[in-house]
Sequence to fold (128 residues):
Amino acid sequence: MRPNDIKVAPHFKLWEFECPCCFTVRLYPVLLERLEKLRQEMGIPIVITSGYRCRKHNREVGGVERSLHLFGQAVDIAIPARIMDQVCWLARKVGFDQVIPYHSRNFIHLGVFAAKEEGNPSANQQAA
Fold:
């Protein structure tokens, strides 16, 4: 059994959100809830290409300094170009705060903001 092989939602396992360089995971519960809602709305599997990122990995991939990926509040998902606009619409419908399509690279960045009262340094952060 691989590390983090734990089912955290009907359609997702914890390892799907881990940093590829250190296998660490931070997963904001609201992100998982909205991702599961999106999966149910879509009716097809969602492939996460980037979940949590440690600072080292975030620098290596050119992520912004205060990326929501650093706090477990963002994922990038692989989406075929032919359905990208529809998936973006559904993502907004289920409540994602950030929906940023990368048409030329066939993925969508999805993020959720933390409530200010939770004391999270990313609260209402605008960085992708």
Observations:
- The longest strand covers residues 74-78.
- The mean pLDDT is 91.
- The longest helix spans residues 29-42.
- The beta strands are 7-9, 12-13, 47-50, 74-78, 98-102, 107-111.
